[in-house]
Amino acid sequence: LAGGIILGVALWLRHDSQTTNILYLQLGDKQAPNTFYVGIYILIAVGAVMMFVGFLGCYGAIQESQCLLGTFFTCLVILFACEVAAGIWGFVNKDQIAKDVKQFYDQAFQQALMAESETNNAKTVVKTFHETLDCCGPDNTMGTITPLWRDDLCPKKDIVMKNIIESSSCHKKIDELFSGKLYLIGIAAIVVAVIMIFEMILSMVLCCGIRNSSVY
Predict the structure, then answer these.
(1) Cα torsion for 51, 19, 108, 150, to the nearest 10°?
(2) 0.85 exceeded by the pTM?
(3) Sign of CA dihedral 26, 101, 140, 184
(4) Residues 187-203: pLDDT tens digits?
(5) d(CA 125, CA 29)
(6) Of 21, 79, 107, 145, which sits most exposed with the smallest number of CB within 10 A?
(7) pLDDT tens readout for residues 136-172
(8) CA dist., res. 73 & res. 76, Å (int)
(9) How many other C-beta atoms are found inside a 10 Å radius of the C-beta of residue 200?
(10) Is the pLDDT of residue 60 over 50?
């Protein structure tokens, strides 16, 4: 059940409309940075393997098989080690993910302001960011200095001044988007880790109980 829940959360994050709209974008020959999906794929793999390993442990407990319970424990240890490694990787790269996406957006924005931007899809990329995140421009300062580009690139022309006042810059929205998603991934990883620890303890207790009972 825990594996199924983790798998469901991971698949929901993988197919979330906001992240897929942004991370599937392509600026010329350059693909949007999709490092974020590494953590998602790890969660998907862990959830799927947990479902299989959980069935293995349940069957081993019903059959009172020390071999199956020992295999169950070994698989849990390997999964736990992989999750700890993934958690460390995610903690180290949590700021880099949003930074890479912001750099990609800035490159598209700069190209959209240039005359030759009509030859590529820079404006489409920028508009997708603006419409998906409901933002307008990379920062507040540029919005007040160069307001002319807003009518062409922003999704809501009638609330330009409202956007300036509320500071709804795309940099801020990108940070909020990925910090929220990474927060969910972190919660899921912690829940899985706690469940795994209890599973390992209980499987060893049950395995030892079966071994001791077989003596008598």
Answers:
(1) 180
(2) no
(3) positive
(4) 877 887 888 888 888 88
(5) 13
(6) 145
(7) 777 655 544 444 455 566 765 554 455 444 446 888 8
(8) 5
(9) 17
(10) yes
Q: What is the mean pLDDT of residues 117-133?
A: 77
The amino acid present at 150, given as its one-letter code, is: R
Q: What is the domain count for the chain? A: 1
Reported as a single tens digit per residue, the pLDDT across 69-79 is: 888 888 888 88
214 token code pair: 């077989």
Q: Which amino acid is it at 129?
A: F
**SS3 sequence of the chain:** CHHHHHHHHHHHHHCCHHHHHHHCCEECCEECCCCHHHHHHHHHHHHHHHHHHHHHHHHHHHHCCHHHHHHHHHHHHHHHHHHHHHHHHHHHHHHHHHHHHHHHHHHHHHHHHCHHHHHCCHHHHHHHHHHHHCCCCCCHHHHHHCHHHHHHHCCCHHHHHHHHHHCCCHHHHHHHHHHHHHHHHHHHHHHHHHHHHHHHHHHHHHHHHHHHHHHC
Query: Within 13 Å of residue 181, how many CA atoms lie on the same side as its CB?
Result: 29
CATH of the domain at 58: 1.10.1450.10
Q: Which amino acid is at 42?
A: I
